[in-house]
Amino acid sequence: MAAQLIAPELPPTLQWLNVQQAPVLDKLRGRVVLLHFFNAANVNSLHLLQELRIVEAKYHDGLSVIGIHTPKFDHERQPANVLKAVNRHFIRYPVANDADWVAWRQFGIQAWPSVAVLDAEGQVAGILAGEGQRLQLDSLVSSLLDDAANRDIRFYEPMQPVSRPEPRTALSFPSKLLVTESALFVADSGHNRILECTHDGRIIRQIGTGTTGYLDGKFGDAAFNDPQGMALIKDMLYVADRGNHCVRRIHMITGEVDTVAGTGVHGHPATQEYGDPRQVALNSPWDLVAAGEKLLIAMAGQHQIWALDLSRYRLNLFSGTGKIGRDDGDGMFATFAKPTGLAYVNQVLYVVDADGSAIRIVRSDGRVQTLVGAGLYEFGDVDGPPAQVRLQYPTDIAADANGQILWLVDTYNDKLKAVSLRGGGAKSIKLTYKFHQPSGIASLPGKLFVANTAAHEVVRIDTSNGQVTRLPIGE
Predict the structure, then answer these.
(1) What Cα–Cα distance (Å) separates residue 108 from each residue in 1, 32, 103, 260, 392?
(2) Contact status, residue 186 vs residue 171, Cβ threshold 8 Å
(3) What are the structural domains of the chain?
(4) Half-sphere exposure of 361 (CA within 13 A, CB side)
(5) What is the spatial distance between Cα 346 and Cα 66, in angstroms, rounded to a whole number?
(6) Contact between residue 313 and residue 260 where contact means Cβ atoms under 8 Å apart
(7) Buried b vs exposed e over 107-130: b needs ≥16 C-beta within 10 Å?
């Protein structure tokens, strides 16, 4: 859409998620309006959310932000599922689900995320595509507000935050899990903390204040931002602190938290070896797994696997070009699609590609191949032999004790599945329990632990009889 045209009114087909009355663009004259086109599963959209928060707070008395969600997956066509994402990421401006992409086409949007900027007279002043737009947005909003003030058409009044909040629960969007013979670790991502529990759900220790932030120090003083995957090596618990774009280390004996990689801000590390990982800005690290002397990192933000050498404290690229895709072959030429889950079995790395609805294999010689999955837009809910299997935005895996099965949370199908490491086929695990966007799984002999994320709970499954027990963590 060409600049300086009056923006069309938002289509009546939009499904508004967190407001009872749909915003009307004509009634927002005198304010600068940002129409934020995003997708709940798109990692670049998550990054732009952080940037928008800064701009929104700075210009709160003259700026309105409206979210327009467009689905990639079938699961995202349902308003209730998208509302979960809105609450999970603390979006407090009006959001609509554009299930049929009507507003997307109306405004000529071409990529996730994008922001259509409307001036105080309702004209389209520009459309900015992609993440990393904060400075440009800041400059454009500032100039448009100044122009409106100079012409005496600016309307000064803060917009009130809106929400349809989740029910108050002891856990909030728990994500990744880690289980040992004596403990269960829960990344309580919505509460920005790590919980050390017994297998029955009794909390032993809380790590982190529970408020969003980036702060090292004692257990009770440290702060996290959307913590995800964990790996325990001796007495050190490593955490992928996704929202802070860094890897944190928890000293389980001394009670200290520090940072071993990342600066606390979003970046794009280059394909080189870094001598001081704490000086490297990372890109949405999502999961961790120990592999000998290395800590492997699922760098979801740039579709790669990185390695932190714990003996030399060096950080370097392990696999992936950084381009989103599903290309197999040599690791330095292979492509991934938002890797969010890792498992390391018999010197072989298994990777969950969430955006590609696939499971990938990285062998000891560096070769990458696809175990199941057909392409970035080939998704569904189909069991069977490898060529037939279709998943829908899976996010985590765990290997069984014998290394013969990968337990998988097929997140947008609300299912658990078993993937054979012998033949590669997959089958759904039939349980009477209802799952809602499960996104974390961990295993012990005879037991599975699952983060039933959108239901704000963790359950334990007895694999011999299928009995499911909800753990009363924090209750």
Answers:
(1) 5, 19, 8, 43, 27
(2) yes
(3) 15-150 (3.40.30.10), 174-470 (2.120.10.30)
(4) 18
(5) 49
(6) yes
(7) bebeebbbbbbbbbbbebbebbbe
Which residue, among 392, 370, 372, has the nearest Cα to 381 in the 3D structure? 392
Q: Can you tell me which residue has the tokens 């404290």?
A: 313
What's the rounded Cα separation, in Å, for the pair 188 and 184?
12
Residue whose pair of structure tokens reads 């299912």 in the numeric block: 415
User: What order of strands is seen across the sheet that includes strand 294-299?
Assistant: 285-291, 294-299, 304-309, 314-319
Strand partners, 103: none
User: Residue 1's pLDDT is what?
Assistant: 41
Q: What is the β-pairing status of strands 63-69 and 32-38?
A: parallel
Closest alpha carbon to 56 in 104, 90, 18:
90
Higher pLDDT, 5 or 446: 446
Amino acid occupying residue 451:
A
| Calpha distance 295→297 (Å, rounded) | 6
List pLDDT tens digits, range 129-161: 999 999 999 999 999 999 999 999 999 988 899
Q: Are 76 and 69 in contact (CB under 8 A)?
A: yes
Q: Residue holding tokens 């895996």?
A: 397
Measured distance CA(390)–CA(426) in Å, rounded: 9
Placement of tokens 């009006």 in the chain: 94
Spatial strand order of the sheet with 348-353 comes to 329-330, 367-372, 358-362, 348-353, 339-345
Q: Which of 39-48, 375-384, 400-409 has the weakest average pLDDT?
A: 400-409
Q: Per DSSP, what are the bridge partners of residue 341?
A: 352
Relative orientation angle of helices 43-58 and 134-150, to the nearest 10 degrees:
30
Burial class (CB in 10 A: 0-12, 13-18, 19+), 194: buried
CB 432 within 8 A of CB 419: no
What span, in angstroms and rounded, lies between the C-alpha atoms of 439 and 459? 12
Sequence-distant (≥ 6) Cβ neighbours of residue 434 within 8 angstroms: 414, 455
Q: How confident is the model at residue 422 (pLDDT cuts 50, 70, 90)?
A: confident
DSSP code at position 404:
S
Residue tagged 């899990």 (tokens) = 177
